[in-house]
Amino acid sequence: MQGKKTGGRTAGTPNKITIELRKTLKGIIASELEALPTTFEQLQPKERLELLVKLLPFCMPKVDSINGSYDAGWRSLDDEN
């Protein structure tokens, strides 16, 4: 039959390899996060600072700068009506 799917996974069925890979990666990340304080203490001060700078965007939102003209439409109190 041409044009008809006759085998394979049905729509919405998760890929078994993807599930296993995610489970394995979650385990690795969890163990590394548990060991992070000990690893952090063993780093040199410069390396600690570099690590903190790299991890900071994951903990705090970035602040966008505001661009524009700040004096447009402003008048001082000394200006006459």
In sequence order, what are the helices and strands, one letter per element? HH
Described by strand count, sense and barrel closure, the largest sheet is: none
Helix content: 40-55%
The whole-angstrom Rg is: 28 Å
SS-derived structural category: mainly alpha
Identify the overall geometry. flat
Number of helices, counting only DSSP H or I runs of 4 residues or more: 2
Instruction: Catalogue the unreliable spans.
Output: none
Indicate the proportion of strand residues: under 5%
Q: How would you state the average pLDDT, rounded?
A: 82
- The termini sit apart by 84 Å
- List how many beta strands DSSP finds: 0
Oligomer: single chain
Descriptors for this entry?
single chain; 81 residues; mainly alpha; 2 helices
Describe what you observe in this structure.
This protein is mostly helical and 81 residues long. The chain has a domain at 16-59. Helix content is 52%, strand content 0%. It is built from 2 helices and no strands. It has helices spanning 16-42, 45-59. The longest helix is centred in the middle third of the chain and has 27 residues, at 16-42.
